[in-house]
Amino acid sequence: MISDVIKINERVEIEVTRRGKPEVYPSRIESLEDSGILLAAPLRGGLVQPIPIGGEVKIVVPYQDSIYAFNTTVLARREGHIPYILVRWPEELSQANRRGYFRLDVLLNMTYAILPKGVNKGELPIPNKSGLIKNLSGSGLLAWIKNEHDLIHGSELLVDIHLPVASGQVTARVVRKTTIPDDPENRIAVGLHIEKIASKFRDEIIRYLFQEQRERRSKGIL
After folding, report:
1. Intra-chain end-to-end CA distance of the chain, in Å
2. Is the pLDDT of residue 197 over 60?
3. Which sign, positive or negative, has the C-alpha torsion 191, 59, 48, 213?
4. What domains sit in the chain, N to C, each tagged with a CATH number?
5. Residues 6+ apart with CB under 8 A from 141
6. Which of 90, 163, 187, 216 has its CA 20 to 30 A from that of 63?
7. Dmax over Cα atoms in the chain, in whole Å?
8. 96 contact partners, CB below 8 Å, separation of at least 6
């Protein structure tokens, strides 16, 4: 099973716990060696995020329509045309909760409405403001939208996500806000954690992400 899942050029995620909080970085399997698995080092903003030798990490790997994960340790750091880390081979893989993993950069339309505090279910506003989804997973999304006075950390949004073959509505909470330098429309980037979603539509999102990943890989984009 391990040899089926862990393959060269496979996109993976490296999860590191810092100060008690998990941080997740995209990576790729660069080579397989007897001594371990060579991965592209985690980067953020073009800067290497150091992991000490002996440090513990979790590696998350998509395979077919499932997600697998294993805990391991960093054995060494290496330099090349990009920086690398070497991690220990796993003794076993566990099937991960696919809802919380696997994000993909996308360009999808969305419409949304900010939910007033204490709004009743029968009084929900109609999502009629436009936004652009830049990154999507089964548990959250990154969107570019117009800034508003009522849009603060913790705000709840009713969001219509428009996939190529399906659309669905979710309730999501703002977990971060950042400015977008030089954006001609003066939008902001908001990280949204999905709090309410129909399980059928979540499966549609996961199915779309896997299909999109396979198509990009076949074209040499990933």
Report:
1. 23
2. yes
3. negative
4. 2-96 (2.30.110.10), 104-218 (2.40.10.220)
5. 110, 133, 135, 159, 161, 172, 191, 192, 194
6. 163
7. 61
8. 60, 67, 68, 69
pTM given for the model: 0.61
Helix (H) or strand (E) holding 78: strand 66-78
Residues 82-125: tens digit of each pLDDT: 899 999 999 999 876 655 556 789 999 999 999 988 777 667 88
- Which residues have C-beta within 8 Å of that of residue 7, sequence separation ≥ 6? 29, 32
| pLDDT surpasses 90 at 32 | yes
Q: How many CA atoms lie within 13 A of 27 on its CB side?
A: 34
CA distance 143 to 191: 7
Neighbours of 168 (CB within 10 A): 16
CB atoms near residue 90 (< 10 Å): 18
Contacts with 26 (C-beta within 8 Å, 6 or more apart), sequence order: 11, 12, 13, 14, 103
Q: Which residues of 173-189 are buried (b: 16+ CB within 10 A; e: fewer)?
A: bbeeeeeeeeeeeebbb
